Amino acid sequence: MSQTPLLDIVDLPQDLRRLEKKQLPQLSAELRAFLLDSVGKTGGHFASNLGAVELTVALHYVYHTPEDKLVWDVGHQSYPHKILTGRKNRMNTMRQYGGLAGFPKRSESAYDAFGVGHSSTSIGAALGMAVADKLAGNGRRSVAVIGDGAMTAGQAFEALNCAGDTDVDLLVILNDNEMSISPNVGALPKYLARNVVRDMHGLLSSIKAQSSKVLGALPGAMEIAQKVEHKIKSMASESEHIKQSLSLFENFGFAYTGPVDGHDVEHLVDVLQNLRAKKGPQLLHVITKKGQGYKLAENDPVKYHAVSTLAKEGDAPPAPVPPPRPTYTQIFGRWLCDQAAADSRLVAITPAMREGSGLVEFEQQFPERYFDVGIAEQHAVTFAGGLACEGMKPVVAIYSTFLQRGYDQLVHDVALQNLPVLFAVDRAGIVGADGPTHAGVYDLSFLRCIPNMVIAAPSDEQECRLLLATCYQLDAPAAVRYPRGSGAGADVSDGLDTVPVGKGVLKRQGGQTALLAFGSMVQPALQAAEVLDASVADMRFVKPLDEALIIELAHRHDYLVTLEENAVQGGAGSAVLEVLAQHKIMKPVLVLGVEDTVTEHGDPKQLMTDLGLSADAVLAQIQSWLAG
User: For binding thiamine diphosphate, which residues are annotated in this chain's numbering (predicted)?
Assistant: First the structure.
């Protein structure tokens, strides 16, 4: 671990504010070193945090947190914030079971003003706080920190539109690093890049680097040079050209300041002190580099967006390991390329999740049929509907948790018009370290109630490919939901075979009890069934349900158990109960799934045990129920 004498005496922002401004560059360097060491051991979001170190230091130095409110958009960049707000000694627990959350969380700290995890919420939340403070007359300040990637979402512009017409003291900081998780797409990032005087920053950096050796030997020369540099930046930000070019934000009613070097912490302090004293909506445009201070992350911010652990210099190379089983995401990506080769109508859409959704190979093979719409899930769904209207076959690759953001569009713009859009719903169920903001435990419930929808839940890798191919062929909206990571290790074909829609498969014939399992819960059900001597059905489809199979199992068994990695309210188990009620079948039914609770972050196996959904926990619950 690097020596961190200044950071060692900073536990809370009030400690930070006792430092002299000239000490902040050293503190920033120590904070970055501490971050490299802690994330290198625990893993977590990485490049975005490195890029936000100086900005975080400056904000807590100037603003009176926690009375003043800092709202971090998404929260990928919140680790330095956590280190400076009393959680430095717990960073070794980051994203682990019972440890610190990977995102700001109100129940974790008074300094976490708003719980985040999804993008583009910060401006609206900070505006609400600013209005509340104005009504209370307490003079507090609210700050929203949002990236240029998150600024592409409609919700951010809705909040800007409202804020600009509201006479409140609000600061929006646009942290411009030209990245979201993947490189930014769309017109807004191009607008920012085109209209910001980046060449001046490059020139200043070059002059600063080349002259530091000479000026460093002259007493007072470096201080004079820095003042000149700041003056040039100030002149640039106030030039008529930039004011006209970046009139976008001024037209929303915000006073624009920038662009400002986001890694010059002393200048950031000066700018923020000035802005804190100003009235009305303010927007500060900050230029940062994702991965700042760690060359590998600077050169490849996509790869280093999040890491498991980091190798250190001198470490022995890791021992060779057998190639891992393909993940469901990879299975989807391979199927998508094969299906696209067979059908020229197929187009793929992602809301800024090219790597996470397995679309890298598709983009390379079919660039004209690949559409990254940026962080804009609502638009992604309606865009798919428009494509489907004109005879295309859109496939929307989206995480379960992010599909929630396009729900109205899914209902109104796709399902009610019965348009053939296939939703490849990744990260369904428990997601582990990312916690409750990313949990995919609601999709069966919110999809099942929508007319015209077909919903499939594959139980292994081969089933995933079969159900994707099946649902793609339908002339109706459909969703195939699959979990994060790998499955049971089933062999996967390279064909485009299909299965009958709405038909399940009996996997095991047993005695008095029948387990009706959906998706990822088929494997735990099969394990429990060996002890129980129970029948097991892989239901395959949540909608339409295989009613004939349910009725048959109900007539041949005394007890029924449904299993799903989804909320029990309104989920697959509820659908089975509805079928039984409709057919006046009275049988004891145990519905297993995620109970009415907020899931936590941590190791997925531990979480599944806690939720009663691991094989052993399922067995114990069924045995207790049968014994009762």
Answer: 76, 117-119, 149-150, 177, 294, 377
